[in-house]
Structure formats: structure tokens, C-alpha cells
Amino acid sequence: MTKLSVNINKVATIRNARGGHIPDVRQFAIDCERFGAQGITVHPRPDERHIRYADVYDIKPIITTEFNIEGNPKGVSKSKPYGFIDLVKEIRPTQVTLVPDAEGVLTSNAGWDTVNNQQYLCDVVREFKACGIRVSIFIDANPQMIVMAAKTGTDRVELYTESYASRYAAGREEAIKPFVEAAKVARDCGLGLNAGHDLSLENLAYFHQQIPWCDEVSIGHALISDALYLGIEETIHRYLDCLNA
Fold first, then answer.
1. What domain count does the chain have?
2. How far is the first Cα of the chain from the last one, in angstroms, to the nearest whole number?
3. CATH number, residue 61
4. pLDDT tens per residue across span 158-179
5. What backbone torsions phi and psi does residue 130 show, to the nearest 5 degrees?
6. Given the DSSP bridges, would you call strands 192-196 and 156-160 parallel, antiparallel or unpaired?
7. Residue 124: beta bridge partners?
């Protein structure tokens, strides 16, 4: 079964645009789980432009499913001298997803180069796993990078699916091919498999049909956008339907 983890960053973006506590990201996380989501994802960035480090502490005690924290292990919060690694080790979520975000990027736009960052990733993976945290590495649909990711000791890889989503309308069969190949390589390497970035109600069902052994999809922007029209309960149900198609 492929689990749905809802990324609630965009909810925090709306809150931060006005200040205060509306919408309440804690309550939103609770409601997502209540409506069927099997996990909650947050991605605190150093500038804290959406999810803040303080939010992560507030959300952890209320999560009843899986808690996934994404981010660059080199990141340091600008609100206080506190690093991403420190945050994750203290919170001890179900999963940490390592993402190579560059400073100031609007959104994640590439997976790890696991060849040139091999030793660094080995060290980080070892540190998190020693705390009992499942580790996933955000990665392009590149077989070589997946094979080298496996050598770090990571538990899973998360396929960066932007190119699948952007090419889907022009021809979904061609768009999915590199992801099926990458997913098979991950499986052959004994890795668990996650996926995320620009997955939506338009393209999720087909992705799942072609890669049914995917463990988890993490979806934020499209899901929160759909919720503006459909409401969060109906939206989550529709995304779960895509994973049960």
C-alpha cells in the first residue's frame, strides 16, 4: 500500500502572509490525519518562510501517523543558531528526507549527487539512523545515483517527480519510463521508495498504477491548492482514491 503524506508547508505560507495563527497548522495537521492522510510532512527552510522550526516542535506531539521532516542537513535556522540536524535529532520523527536545497531556492529543484556527496551522505545517514530515524534521500530518476544512494546506508530514496509531472500531458507513457526504471533499480538495491514533487489529481493514479510498490507519496502544493476548491476532507479522499485505483 502506498501511503499519502500531506505536506503542510503551504498552510504555513498563508499564515505567515498575515501573521498570527490563522490558519492553524497544528489543527490542519490533525484534520489531515482525521480525514485519512497516513502521514504529515514539513520542510523547514533556514529563512522559515513557511514552516518554522518552532512549528515542528508544536506538531510533533499531535501526530498520530508518520511524521516526515524534509530538508538540507546543512541548513541552519535564521531565527536562532540551530541546525537542521539538531532539530531532527531532537524531534526524532518517523522519517527524515534529505533534500539538497540551495540557499534561497523557491522550491526543491534537484536530487542529490550521491557520487560526489557519498561520504557526506554516509555520515549524515549514519547519524540519523543511530537515533532510530528512518532516512530517505531525495533523488533524480537516475539509476547510477540510486545505486550510490544505497551505498550510504539509507533506508529509502524519494524520486523527484517534477519531470514526470511536467511531461505527463504530452505523453504519460514516455514521462513515466525513467521513473519505472529508477524504481526497479531501487527495489533491486533493497531500498524503500518514496516519491514527490508536483504529483496531483491529474497524474497520481497513473504513477501509482505503473509503480504500485512505492511506499509513500508526499504531496503539498497541488493538494493544498485543490483544497481551496474542494475542501481538505474531499481533497484527501480523492488523493487516496488515486492510490487505490
1. 1
2. 11
3. 3.20.20.70
4. 999 999 999 999 999 999 999 9
5. -65, -20
6. parallel
7. none
| Residue 106 structural domain | 3-243
pTM: 0.94
pLDDT in tens, 190-243: 999 999 999 999 999 999 999 999 999 999 999 999 999 999 999 999 999 999
For the residues 125-144, what does the mean pLDDT come to?
98
C-alpha 218/C-alpha 198 separation (Å) is: 10
State the Cα–Cα distance between residues 214 and 110, nearest whole angstrom.
20
Single out the residue of 184, 241, 213, 163 nearest to residue 1, CA to CA.
Answer: 213
- The catalytic residue positions are 43, 70, 197
Contact 98, 135 (CB under 8 A): yes
Which among 82, 96, 100 has a CA at the least distance from the CA of 128? Answer: 96
Instruction: With CA atoms as reference, report the closest residue to 152 among 126, 170, 185.
Output: 126
Dihedral sign for Cα 133, 108, 164, 41, please.
Answer: positive
- Residue 41's identity, in one-letter code, is T
Q: Which residue type does 91 have?
A: I
Q: Please report the DSSP string for 131-178 in residue order.
A: TT-EEEEEE-S-HHHHHHHHTTT-SEEEEE-HHHHHHTTT-HHHHHHH
Q: What angle do CA 182, 186, 190 make, to 5 degrees?
A: 165
